[in-house]
Specification:
Length: 109
């Protein structure tokens, strides 16, 4: 079985102005498999806007992974990999706390 090296790259997105995604990736992902990771999926808006700059490279495949899926989708986005699905109201908020690369806690407010 062949296992390619895994590379991690950040994609910055301002949630107040999601159209202005920093689409300057430091590597060409054309023809590669990509996993886009987000902490909490709520409406699907953040994930949808984050896909836009990735598609300019024509990757082989894109998978969406989220730590927590709230399932309040307003946009046609469904994660492929989900850590936890949580039933919440629209007024509640989930905060994920990380230390380095490790998730240490998640809170429901």
């Amino acid at each position: 079985m062949y296992c390619a090296a895994v590379e991690v790259h950040a994609l910055k997105l301002d949630k107040r102005k999601p159209v202005t995604v920093d689409d300057a990736l430091s590597v060409d992902i054309s023809g590669k498999d990509v996993v886009l990771v987000d902490d909490v999926a709520n409406s699907g808006k953040t994930l949808l806007y984050a896909l836009r700059p990735l598609l300019t490279y024509e990757p082989a495949r894109i998978l969406l992974a989220v730590l927590v899926d709230r399932a309040h989708k307003s946009f046609p986005v469904a994660p492929d990999i989900v850590g936890h699905t949580v039933s919440t109201t629209l007024q509640e908020h989930i905060e994920v706390v990380c230390e380095g690369e490790r998730v240490v806690n998640a809170f429901l407010h």
